[in-house]
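Q: I'm building a small set of examples for a reading group on sequence design. Run inverse folding on the following structure and report the sequence directly after it, with nothing in between.
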């Protein structure tokens, strides 16, 4: 892509963005749209209307609460931001160029994204759970309607993808795509996370999903499904390290390389928290010599570790918005289909008749696994583990299978998942 900033500055009219979700991330996206040349937010929606109103007010942005599509169009025409409860209005708005889906709703996120794509609106996903579980279907829907569907830049999957693209361009062969996590407690719940969530101004369930490893697994599954990678073991290994170079002490990269299946994984405790890395191979002795010539210590060869010490979700998202609109390019999509998924495991002893409460709740956490190992006896995807009833007792840390639950196959999230599975099978056939 040529100079993005120059092209944004030269636009006769800005790229008009609609944001679904006005929580921690959505509010930050609103701010970033306001300060980025050539991009403006024209509408924001949240099921809690006061949050969307408060986000606009926090930055002194003119806004108006709208009730319907005509009202939204009129508000935008007057130069104000349309604010509403229903993300579907944004997804149907003919003057929205790009929809950023940043809600915390799995089913809602899938519905809003699908509606926007059907209406010829580019979609940037900052909702990793919806992105994972419905991605193959949404990608196909975008192709059908001549628009872009992409995982957002700035969050770990997008940042890993750019880093992997770089090292591949440089002539290295990808062996591992990795995440750097600061802490992990599989049994965290919304009550135990109140102090940390309040300190970080995070939703309690979101903070729980970060802490119990579910969010990590979802993010790495997105990477695996985009790059055609696998996990070496359910949940990944995640060794504790002080420095990133210690990955060479914990992983047998020769074994991984010889298996011909590059993998996703993570390290725990290595600074800087929140960064990402890739491990890649070069066989040429000259490259080994040159890589060790530079001051940065990346390894001695044939394996080298490359890292990105930060990810800035809302800040970096704007590049993805620009690429979608200006270049019709997606940063990251599930082009390999469902190579991996994230399955539900019991967070405590569960009893027959209990209702599961999904991601970031009290009943289950998610573990990434290869889909090839779930073909005959499928686990319950964690993204579908909300408001379904157990048919049997499940002990703590046991996997929950589809056959263990009572669910409505016609429920929106299950219907969209069925469509996504169909598209995934088509990709692999």
């Amino acid at each position: 892509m040529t100079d993005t900033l120059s092209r944004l500055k030269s636009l006769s009219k800005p790229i008009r963005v609609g944001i679904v979700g006005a929580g921690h991330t959505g509010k930050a996206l609103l701010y970033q749209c306001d300060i980025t040349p050539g991009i403006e937010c024209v509408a924001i929606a949240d099921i809690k209307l006061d949050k969307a109103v408060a986000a606009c007010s926090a930055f002194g942005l003119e806004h108006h609460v709208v009730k319907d599509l005509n009202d939204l169009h009129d508000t935008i025409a007057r130069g104000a931001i349309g604010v509403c409860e229903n993300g579907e209005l944004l997804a149907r708005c003919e003057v929205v160029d790009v929809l950023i889906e940043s809600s915390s709703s799995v089913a809602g996120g899938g519905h809003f994204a699908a509606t926007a794509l059907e209406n010829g609106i580019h979609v940037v996903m900052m909702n990793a759970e919806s992105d994972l579980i419905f991605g193959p279907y949404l990608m196909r829907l975008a192709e059908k309607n001549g628009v872009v569907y992409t995982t957002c830049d700035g969050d770990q999957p997008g940042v890993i993808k750019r880093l992997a693209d770089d090292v591949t361009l440089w002539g290295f062969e990808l062996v591992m795509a990795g995440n750097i996590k600061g802490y992990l407690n599989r049994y965290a719940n919304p009550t135990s996370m109140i102090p940390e969530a309040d300190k970080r101004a995070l939703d309690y369930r979101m903070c729980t999903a970060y802490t119990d490893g579910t969010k990590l697994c979802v993010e790495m599954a997105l990477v695996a499904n985009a790059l055609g990678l696998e996990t070496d073991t359910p949940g990944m290994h995640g060794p504790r390290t002080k420095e990133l170079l210690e990955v060479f002490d914990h992983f047998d990269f020769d074994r991984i390389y010889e298996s011909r299946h590059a993998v996703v994984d993570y390290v725990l405790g290595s600074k800087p928290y929140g960064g990402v890395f890739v491990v890649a191979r070069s066989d040429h002795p000259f490259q080994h010599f040159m890589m060790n010539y530079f001051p940065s210590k990346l390894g001695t060869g044939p394996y080298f570790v490359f890292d990105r010490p930060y990810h800035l979700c809302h800040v970096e998202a704007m590049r993805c918005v620009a690429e979608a609109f200006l270049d019709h390019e997606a940063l990251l999509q599930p082009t390999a289909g469902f190579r991996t998924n994230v399955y539900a495991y019991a967070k405590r002893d569960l009893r027959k008749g209990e209702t599961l409460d999904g991601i970031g709740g009290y009943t289950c956490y998610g573990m990434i696994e290869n889909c090839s190992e779930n073909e005959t006896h499928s686990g319950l995807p964690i993204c579908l583990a909300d408001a379904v009833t157990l048919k049997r007792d499940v002990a703590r840390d046991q996997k929950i299978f589809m056959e263990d639950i009572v669910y409505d196959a016609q429920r929106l999230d299950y219907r969209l998942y069925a469509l996504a599975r169909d598209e995934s099978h088509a990709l692999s056939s």
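The chain has three domains: 4-154+314-327, 156-311, 340-428.
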